[in-house]
Amino acid sequence: MKIDVLTLFPSIFNIIIESSIIKRAIDKGKVEINIINIRDFSDYSNSQVDDTPYGGGGGMVLMCDPVFKAIESVKVDNSKVIMMTPSGSVFNQKLAYDFSKFEHIILLCGHYEGFDERIKTLVDLEVSIGDYVLTGGELPASVIIDSVVRLIPGVISEESLKSESFTDSLLDYPVYTKPRVYRGMEVPEVLLSGDHKRIEEYRKSERLRITREKRADILK
Ligand code: 6GU
């Protein structure tokens, strides 16, 4: 899979790309990630990329030309252009799975008041990461990169993907490691029993209990 990120703040992505599982996925050739500065595509003086909105109102609006040229520099037939915007569809694990099957995604990050509406003619999908407002699309794009790359086959083990939160609309079961007793708090006896059937039943019922307690809204 190839991910091209179009942004005005390229350095924000250094930490994502140089860390842990994402870095390993890049090194293993499972994903190629390119960070592209939209400003490099501005033909205006001082590399201007934004201007005041027609009709008035506050803030600055990203202009068509640098963004069109940046998208056109990377877009091919099978590319999916995804715009990061608080007015997009809310991202979730199902969308992460869908995105992980695309061959090429282009993540378009904006700042300021927003994008000139005409940029949307080049966009396949508008995505938000939740009902709150951030100053730009870089953190949302990082969230998408992280959640999508870990789902690419061979990036992390099938075993860890199988029972994790949200894959079957249940939250995860609680886990424990050594020591068996810590400050008087004991590991549940069933986990020490070696009885795999009982352990599986315990984990299933814990997942149900925890989901009911914390996220009744996702229980089917
Ligand atoms: Cl994609 N962008 C911005 N600016 N804020 C957000 C968002 C995106 N998703 C949630 N809040």
What small molecules does the structure contain? 6-chloroguanine
* Arithmetic mean pLDDT: 95
Adjacency order of strands in the biggest sheet: 2-1-6-5-8
SSE series: EHHEEEHEHEEEHHEEH
Description:
- The structure is a single chain.
- The chain is an alpha/beta fold and 220 residues long.
- It folds into 2 domains: 2-156, Alpha/beta knot; 163-218, tRNA(m1g37)methyltransferase, domain 2 (Trp Operon Repressor, Chain A), CATH 1.10.1270.
- 30% of the residues lie in helices and 20% in strands.
- It contains 7 helices and 10 strands.
- The strands form 3 sheets. The protein has a 5-stranded parallel sheet, sandwiched between helices.
- It is elongated, with a radius of gyration of 22 Å.
- The structure holds 6-chloroguanine.
Q: What is the strand and helix layout of this fold?
A:
Elements: E1 2-7, H1 14-17, H2 20-27, E2 32-37, E3 50-51, E4 61-62, H3 64-74, E5 79-90, H4 93-100, E6 104-108, E7 114-115, E8 125-128, H5 138-149, H6 158-162, E9 181-182, E10 185-186, H7 196-214
Parallel strand pairs: 1-2, 1-6, 4-7, 5-6, 5-8
Antiparallel strand pairs: 3-4, 9-10
Helix pairs in contact: 4-5
The protein binds 6-chloroguanine.
Keywords:
220 residues; alpha/beta; Alpha/beta knot; Trp Operon Repressor, Chain A; 2 domains; five-stranded parallel β-sheet; three-stranded mixed β-sheet; 7 helices; 10 strands; 30% helix; elongated; binds 6-chloroguanine
